[in-house]
Amino acid sequence: MFSFRHLFTLRQMAMQMGLRRSVQRLSSHTKWEQHSIHKCSNVRLLSTSEYEKLNEFKNTPEKPVSNTFLCITHILENTNKGGKEEAEKVFNDLVEGYQANDEKRNLKAVFDTLESVIVKGDVHWFKHLQILQTCKEFRGLLEKVFFSLSNYNEHDLLNLLTCQLTFRIYDKTREAKLWENVLPKSNKLNISGLIRLHHMSKNSKDNSLQNQIAKQIARRWMEIEKVNELISVMKIMILESKKSSEASVFDHLEEKALQKAETLNLEEITQVLFALRASGRRNLPLIKSLAYCMKKKMSDDFPLKSTASVFTSISKLNFHDAALLGLLSDHAVMKVNGVQEKKEAVNFLSIILMSCAHLRWFPPNLEKTIQSHFEEFPDHLNPVHLCLAICNVSKLHSFSESEKEVVRNMVAKLEEKGIEKSHPVVWLNLALALGWNDCSVDWVLSSVLKQDFVDNIQKNFPTMVSVLRQLDYEASFAFPNFQGPRLDLGGQKPERTNTKQDSLVTDVIDITHVLDKQMDESVQTRIMTSQGHEIDALVLVGNDKRVVPFSSSGSNFHKVAIKVLKFQDMIQPGVVPTSESRMWVRHMQSLGYKLVVIPYNEWKSLPGNNSKMMYLEKKITESIS
């Protein structure tokens, strides 16, 4: 029940604003829920249309404040947190806190009132907070707390700062003052408190503030014991680890993660892998340990989002564990088939597909799932992601006739959206990935190999000119009378590749040298053609199927290009050449070369040098037959 003092105050306000009948209705015995409070548009504290005027109360102390009990009751009713009884309790606690001279009690009253009255997730929470800030007692509490900042300890200040950044109970000037009081005492916080403080500093535009807190965390990494703290610090140190002064901190964090690997759950393993990927650190012992634990702990309730994240992380870290990839692939297929929302399934499939293309991993069950959703890609992916998805599918999978028609329609829609102008490199990579077939020939000629597009690439993306040369040459081979665009070759000539020495390639080259005694003249190694094709070894072979020196004259000699297909050139687990490898074969054949392609698995299975030499001789003989 209202006291007579409350009723008298309300009647006075109503008489001044011409709302006697509205206030009389509030004083009746009608239940509180039945009053149409929102219709009383002239009652300032309850009105939605007059809500903007509430800001005046906060900044103008001399104006009369609203009735605190009525404010609290209204907010609780709107947020379904209670009625008059609950409001009375909150009001009494607020008044007691306001009247107390104890600084701790003042601060606790602020926290308790906000916790009891404001619902952060409610759509009107900010409006409710503005209403609460018009109340004399609550506003007085905020003033008392602010003027006592220097007397609070580090934990109280941290909680108050959390409250400020959550509800914005003070203005920006006072928030800055609060930071000034927190920072000098931050060295007394434990590691968990420092992590909270760093998280809150992200709301500040002052980068030096974040760096200052990050350095404190870096100095006290040895205090980390809890797994959640370890993961949080790893995320904080991601950017710091790129600086030489903080790289050692990440070393220690990785060591701690390795020690605690057995205690990590699946989601924590995902987060550690993400931190490694984001920092670009390939700690193989840690990655292998995390992979082992993931294989042991994998469960059906592991989310699809986390599965896609793990795929991305291990692909960025270039980590290939067939057992783990198989497990993740099976789990992804199961989760995708169980997802009701098509957009969610397609988005995560596109992420997993990109990782598979990078790892050259495409098991049959995942391939089948991708095929079943392929036609839905344009409906749920933006143009750039759709281009990338088509590229990735092409790298791992040979399109059927029906799929070629789908791709043709996708490309037509992408052309309508002007993707070749907004993202020319993506458009060029799509042309290269699809190669020269009946689903791409028309648009490659009309949209890629045209002068304005070529000029744009040569001017702004010179590193992509080699791709243009490959497409242009294939077009001229397919159409003898093709008049392509003018390409600026920049005086490029055949040259030796700068590829890092590979033991597998070196072994093949050594065996190739043994085929003829005149090593220097009979074998050319690690060369690059003017069209941008890399050749591991090149030999000249006569009709008698023997290797001869390059100085030999005559027209009955064949240039045999030898290419080693390494692990990254094959799609696992079926050990099938990638689309890039198939394109290399196609282009080199069009240039008139005879080809010897050596898959890494076949070469490694040969027992000795004699077997390898016989294998190579047989391959060369077959290439010119």
How would you explain this protein's 3D organization?
- The protein is α+β, with helices and mostly antiparallel strands.
- Among the domains are: 4-147, no CATH class; 382-492; 495-624.
- 61% of the residues lie in helices and 6% in strands.
- The strands form two sheets. Strands 1, 2, 3, 4, 5 and 8 form a six-stranded mixed sheet that branches.
- Helix 19 (342-359) packs across helix 22 (383-396).
- The termini are far apart.
- The relative contact order is 0.04.
- Residues 560-618 form the RAP domain.
- It comes from Magallana gigas.
- It holds the Pfam family RAP.
- This is RAP domain-containing protein.
- Helix/strand/pairing category: alpha+beta
Strand content: 5-15%
What distance separates the N and C termini?
Answer: 105 Å
Count the DSSP helices. 33
Helical percentage: 55-70%
Q: Which term fits the overall shape?
A: elongated
Major beta sheet, specifics? 6 strands, mixed
* Uncertain ranges: 1-64, 491-499
Quantity of strands, as a count: 8
State Rg.
36 Å
The overall pLDDT average reads 79
